Amino acid sequence: MRRLSRTLYFWVLIAVIGGAVLGVLLPSTAVALKPLGDGFIKLIRMVVAPIVFCTIVTGIAQVRDLPRVGRVGLKALIYFEVTSTLALALGLLVANLARPGDGFHIDPAGLDATAVSQYASAAHDHSLVEFLLNIIPNTAGAALSSGEILQVLLLALLTGFGVALTGSKGEPFVAFIDATLQVLYKVVGFIMWLAPIGAFGAMAFTIGKFGWASLGPLARFMGLFYFTCVVFVFGILGLVSKCAGFSIFRLANYLKTELFTVLGTSSSESVLAQLIERLERLGCRRTTVGLVVPTGYSFNLDGTAIYMSLAAIFLAQAIDAPLTAGQQLAVLLVAMVSSKGAATVTGGGFITLAATLAVIPSVPVAALAIILGIDRFMSEARSLTNLMGNAVATLVVSRLEGEVTGEQLKTALSLGEPSTS
């Protein structure tokens, strides 16, 4: 017990449980603790952009193999599209088999459309063209200060290529960036010890604000979503992991601190910097981690994909407007695009779902009000699934690139440290 009490994940788990209990017993006090969670996430976001930038720049500069960078990026994008499509298809399959919306018989005319109007408006305004243009920052400094991951990724790639082509003259710059990265990792270590406080405040706010009562009428749908995420992670991703030579269960155990932190904060971004460091410790090259993880945070949102397809069918069933096979195929195709277009936007899950519903005239956007009250509770499963999806993606690409062997990963995951064999 003494050894367990010295681990960070133990205190994060205790904080999550304590926050939930406080939310039930003293809701008003719990709601007031929201700044604790917000403050922790802001601290993490403060260092995410510079860590992503430094990781990619030093990775490309040290490898000096530009074709390899392109190859890694292409493999990652192909992998993202395949797994995201599988996640969407799984959501559709489960929704059609379990039919969680049957029996609700909700009249859309009686729903409060104003409650979700902001999400519908954002979905309409956030076009693919706007998304692509938003990748380009106004200035180099703006990319780092705004925290937009894709902007940081673009700037880092251009800088890394520039340094690699400069040759020996760029070595002092690379040394400076590498030293900066090591300092930032130390800073992340300091911040992560505040994770229990952040998780306590965020969980207390969630339970205190929305309460367990809001789960009652929609418990079946929420339970089905959690179940589907578990099936995807330990079934589909588990199979992918096995083929790549490592165990999904051991990976989950290795990332338990990050998983508990995400559970408490409802945000996978809260552990992005920590995830990069942890995957490097497993033996993945810095270039691969620097490309796959940040890109995955925008293009490989498996939990969000499951949520979109499952929720779309659930809402159609709830208002007695069953979808044809053609309409469900349209949902799948639109979701494949819209899940990328609003990935980095606040409330992205709702925004992308609103954009997807636009192709189904029989299901008004106002139907989103049905699940608005439980969305905060769904975000935990989305974030946890997204985190595991990106961790698996990085290890798979690393295996495809021959950076690590299956035996090395098995040893590293069992020990919690990189293998020296």
Describe this entry's structure for a reader:
With 421 residues, the protein is an all-alpha fold. The protein has one domain (2-64, 73-415): Proton glutamate symport protein (Orthogonal Bundle). Helices cover 76% and strands 0% of the residues. The protein contains 22 helices and no strands. The longest helix has 33 residues, at 66-98. Residues 341-346 have low confidence and may be disordered.
Any chance you could write out the topology, listing elements then pairs?
Layout: H1 2-5, H2 8-25, H3 27-31, H4 34-63, H5 66-98, H6 117-125, H7 128-134, H8 140-146, H9 149-166, H10 171-192, H11 195-210, H12 219-244, H13 248-254, H14 256-265, H15 272-281, H16 286-299, H17 302-318, H18 325-341, H19 348-357, H20 369-372, H21 375-400, H22 406-415
Helix pairs in contact: 2-11, 2-14, 4-9, 4-10, 4-11, 4-16, 5-12, 5-16, 5-17, 5-18, 5-21, 6-19, 11-14, 12-17, 12-21, 14-21, 15-16, 16-21, 17-18, 17-19, 17-21, 18-19
